[in-house]
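# step 3/5: fold
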Amino acid sequence: MNFSLKDHLQGLEEQLLQPEIRASQKALQKLLAPDFFEFGSSGRVLYKGEAIRENGIGEVNMRLSHFEIQELSEEVVLATYRIFDEKESRNSLRSSIWRCNDGHWQLVFHQGTIYM
C-alpha cells in the first residue's frame, strides 16, 4: 500500500497520542526535533528538554479528526486538525510543523487552542 505524505504525518500525530509512545523517551526523541517547542492548550510553553520527563510526556485520551496538511516547502509541512479530549470533555484546534531531517519527519512546533 502506498501511503501519501498526509497519511504518513497523520499516523505520526496519532502515534503521539498513544500511551506507549508518550511513555517512551526513545520514541519521543525520534519523533520530536531537537529544537521542538509547544504552545500548549494550557497556555504553557514547553521545550523538548523540559517536556520529556523520565516517564515521558504523560498519558492522554484524545481523538484526532479533520486532519489536513499544507506543504510549506519540500522539507516542511504544516498540519492542522482537531482533538477531542475525552478526559476533559473539550475540543481543541491543533497545528503542527513537521520537518524532514535525513529522510525522517520530526515535529518542530505544536500548538493547541481550546474552542467550544
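# step 4/5: annotate
The mean pLDDT is 89.
# step 5/5: archive (pending)
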